[in-house]
Design brief:
Helix content is about 40%, strand content about 15%. The chain has about 200 residues and is α+β, with helices and mostly antiparallel strands. It has two domains: about 130 residues, TATA-Binding Protein, CATH 3.30.310; about 55 residues, no CATH class.
């Protein structure tokens, strides 16, 4: 599991890696965090499966450029100050409970920003799940793609669909899904690629 988490982070960061990479295990060592409560796995963004080696939870999601400032404001209200120009940063909470940390990775992609966040602060996870942070619409992320011509998904679009768009989509109720300004072709794409309900 440790290798998988680090592989995900390395893929997300791409060429943004610093000369001396931050050690996630070391940053959260001694935090005492074990795993998020069960109800947290029903919210969006949903934490990745826990890793006993890293004393923090990890969430990953895509946010539109319009919603990025809302994300930074959410962190500020939770007691953390984000440096928007820094793609990888560790922030310490400035209010009670002191000592909590957030490790934030920002990676511009899909006409928005892929956000990966590791933290031992459950208040941050709750705030993330209570703040609606929409990703860019599919037509904005893939303006050159005709969704009607897509069969099986591969590469970037498969990653976007499975890990970024679909988790957001299924977190919405039917009214919220209908209110999104999706082009008819993309709405049909979403309907055709949703996983079949368990029998």
């Amino acid at each position: 599991m440790k290798i998988k988490l680090m592989s995900i982070l390395n893929n997300l960061l791409g060429k943004q890696r610093s000369a001396e990479p931050l050690d996630m295990k070391g940053i959260f060592s001694g935090s005492g965090f074990s795993e998020a409560p069960l109800h947290a796995y029903k919210g969006y963004p949903t934490p990745l499966p826990p890793d006993a080696v890293i004393e923090a939870y990890l969430v990953r999601f895509l946010v539109s450029e319009e919603n990025l400032s809302r994300l930074f404001l959410m962190f500020e209200k939770a007691g953390y100050v984000v440096n928007p120009g820094q793609h990888t940063q560790v922030m310490e909470r400035s209010q009670e409970p002191i000592g909590k940390k957030v490790m934030l990775f920002l990676h511009p992609s899909f006409s928005g920003t892929v956000v990966s966040c590791a933290s031992d602060d459950l208040d941050v996870l709750e705030a993330l799940q209570q703040t609606r942070l929409d990703p860019p619409l599919p037509a904005d992320s893939f303006p050159w793609i005709d969704p009607e011509g897509l069969g099986s998904l591969q590469g970037d679009i498969e990653y976007w669909w499975m890990h970024l768009w679909l988790p957001f989509w299924v977190s919405l109720n039917q009214e919220e899904q209908l209110s999104l300004e999706l082009e008819p072709e993309w709405r049909e794409f979403i309907e055709n690629h949703q996983p079949s309900p368990p029998q």
